[in-house]
Amino acid sequence: MKPTVFILTAVRNRLNETKKLLGSIKKQTYPMIKTFIVDDGSTDGTSGYLKSNKHVTYIKGNGKLWWTGAISIGVETALKTAKSNDFILTINNDCEFGPNYIQKLLHLAKQYKKGIIGSLVVDSGDQSAVIDAGIKIDWKNYRLLRLGPLDIAKLPTRKTHQRDVDILSTKGTLFPVEVFTQIGNFNHKIFPHYLSDYEFTYRARQTGYKLILSYQAIVYNDFKNTGIYPEKNRKIKVTSALKLLFSRRSRVNIIDNINFINLHCPPKYKIRNYYSILTKIIKGSKLIDFST
How does pLDDT run across 170-181, given as a tens digit for each residue? Predict the structure, then answer.
């Protein structure tokens, strides 16, 4: 029997993006699909639209789940009916993909026992720009090193996927159901929004799962609307600096990064990496505008 793919996403408003995602799902050539959407406090008509959509299992959040809490509930719901050979596909609602997308992910998953398959993420606003082609971690210097080219035209023509991957995002990643029964769920208590995907996939890798990134399963992501991030060499106000350092929506949140180091960094590099984070904060303070 063919495996069922449980597609999970979480939303808070942005109904038009959700409609585009559902349009991509509806066009899939692979038939065994179930879509679960956690709506965590939308006020733009999203809840009514999802409730009336017979192809969607609607899950209502309490408005305080953030990304990881919402996806964790989706995983728990899927596991109630999923069989051991099924898969869970996490995806953001600001993503789109072609009709053979899930088929391509499954094709690669069949090649790797205990494989977790990630997607090539491309900027939907500039479809030549690669956002994510896999990541390696340099623990010695605490750097996330991007694999693959930044230009989609420079992808290797004879290589269908990347095997040398340390972490994957949740922007189009296919997980075998068994990984959740073996290592647990996403850690929503420590990583409520960012880095939960990196932490989970790294944890899975440490327990014997293979992280693979497909060059053929492509996700087009609205990258400009993804979180808070610093603009290079641009002066910012103190309030903006604090948001960058501590907001849950910031991709450089220092608390998340310290927690990631605490959980997974090799002991010999931990002190070095705490110091590295402190140094980056001090260097970044030179770009803060303290004038009123």
Answer: 999 999 999 999
The reply to whether 240 and 100 lie within a common domain is no
Count, residues in the chain: 292
User: 290, 171 in Cβ contact below 8 A?
Assistant: no
Q: How many angstroms separate the Cα of 272 from the Cα of each of 192, 220, 263, 279?
A: 26, 37, 15, 10
As a whole number of Å, the CA-based R_g of the chain is: 19
Rounded to 10 deg, the angle between the 254-264 and 196-206 helix axes is 10
Structure tokens at 260: 């990631």
**What pTM does this model have?**
0.91
Contacts of 278 (CB under 8 A, 6+ apart): none
Q: Contact at 8 Å (CB) between 13 and 93?
A: no
Kindly state whether residues 184 and 245 are assigned to the same domain. Answer: no
Domain span holding position 278: 236-289
Q: What is the pLDDT of residues 4-58, one digit of tens each?
A: 999 999 999 999 999 999 999 999 999 999 999 999 999 999 999 999 999 999 9
Is residue 230 in a domain?
Answer: no
Task: Based on the fold, state whether residues 246 and 221 are members of the same structural domain.
Answer: no
C-alpha span between 128 and 148 (Å, rounded) = 13
- Domain annotation covers residue 53: yes
Joined tokens for residue 209:
């799962």
Shared-domain flag, residues 64 and 184? yes
Q: What is the mean pLDDT of the chain?
A: 90
d(CA 148, CA 64): 36
Helix (H, G, I), strand (E, B) or coil at 257: helix
Distance CA 292, CA 289 (A): 8
Query: Could you give the angle at which helices 238-246 and 267-285 cross, rounded to 10 degrees?
Result: 160
